[in-house]
Write a structure and sequence with these properties.
This protein has about 220 residues and is α/β, with parallel strands linked by helices. It has seven helices and nine strands; from the N terminus they run H-H-H-E-E-H-E-H-E-H-E-E-H-E-E-E.
C-alpha cells in the first residue's frame, strides 16, 4: 500500500481504527463492514483541505452542493444490503465522490453507479482507476430512472433522499433483493430498507438521517 493510501497523522490507520471503534459502539456488528470502513482510504475522497477530518464520523462537503456520507450511515446501509447474502449485481444511485462505490465493490461482483453531475462522474472514473477498482461501471445519468439495461439487481443503494420511492427502482429490484433509500423532506428523513417479496415490498426503518435531496435530470 502506498503512503497516499495508508495516510499519515490524522489520516493514518490509527485514525481509521478509532472511527471503526466508534461505529462498532453505535451498533454496527458486521465484521466485514467494519473491516471495509477501516481499510478504505476515505481521505482520498475529500478535498485535500478536509483530509484531516476524513476519519471523523461526519458527512463532509465534496463540492457542487453534494456531500460524502457519514461513515456510520455508509456502514448501516452496506450492512443492510449484505445481510441477504451474496450480491451479484448492485445499483448505486448518487455515486458522488465514490467512497460508497468502492465499499460496495468489495461486497458485490459488479456495481453499476449512476451520478447525475457530470463533473463528479468524471472524477469518480479517475479515482476508481487510481485505486485499481475494476468492477464498478459509472454512468452519468438520471438516478431516478435506474439503469434498466442491467436489471434486475440484488441490491440497490440510494444516497439521496426521495420524497417518494421511485417506481423504476423497485421495478428493477430482483425478487428477494434489497433497496436501501432515505425517504422524506429535509428535517424529516428516514433511512428505509425495502425487501422485494412475492407478495410485494416489506419495509423497515433503519435510522433517522439527513441526505441531500434526490433530483431528476442531469447536469
Amino acid at each position: 500500500m502506498t503512503a497516499d493510501l495508508r495516510g499519515i497523522g490524522m489520516t493514518s490507520q490509527r485514525a481509521r481504527d478509532r472511527l471503526v471503534a466508534q461505529i462498532r459502539k453505535m451498533g454496527v456488528d458486521s465484521e466485514l463492514v467494519l473491516n471495509l470502513i477501516g481499510t478504505t482510504p476515505r481521505h482520498l475522497f475529500v478535498d485535500e483541505a478536509l483530509a484531516s477530518r476524513a476519519y471523523e464520523n461526519n458527512a463532509l462537503p465534496i463540492g457542487l452542493g453534494q456531500t460524502i456520507s457519514q461513515p456510520y450511515i455508509v456502514a448501516v446501509m452496506t450492512a443492510a444490503l449484505i445481510n441477504n447474502g451474496k450480491i451479484v449485481k448492485a445499483l448505486e444511485i448518487g455515486a458522488g465522490c465514490g467512497y460508497q462505490s468502492v465499499i460496495l465493490a468489495k461486497v458485490a461482483e459488479t456495481v453499476y453507479s449512476i451520478e447525475r453531475i457530470g463533473a463528479l462522474a468524471s472524477k469518480l472514473r479517475n479515482r476508481l482507476h487510481q485505486l485499481h477498482v475494476n468492477n464498478v461501471r459509472v454512468r452519468h445519468g438520471d438516478g431516478t430512472l435506474g439503469w434498466e439495461k442491467n436489471a434486475p439487481y440484488d441490491a440497490i443503494l440510494v444516497a439521496a433522499a426521495a420524497v417518494g420511492i421511485p417506481s423504476a427502482l423497485t421495478d428493477q429490484l430482483a425478487l428477494g433483493g434489497r433497496l436501501v433509500i432515505p425517504v422524506g423532506r429535509p428535517g424529516d428523513q428516514k433511512l428505509m430498507l425495502l425487501t422485494k417479496t412475492a407478495n410485494g415490498l416489506e419495509e423497515q426503518i433503519l435510522e433517522l438521517v439527513s441526505f441531500v435531496p434526490m433530483v431528476g435530470g442531469i447536469t
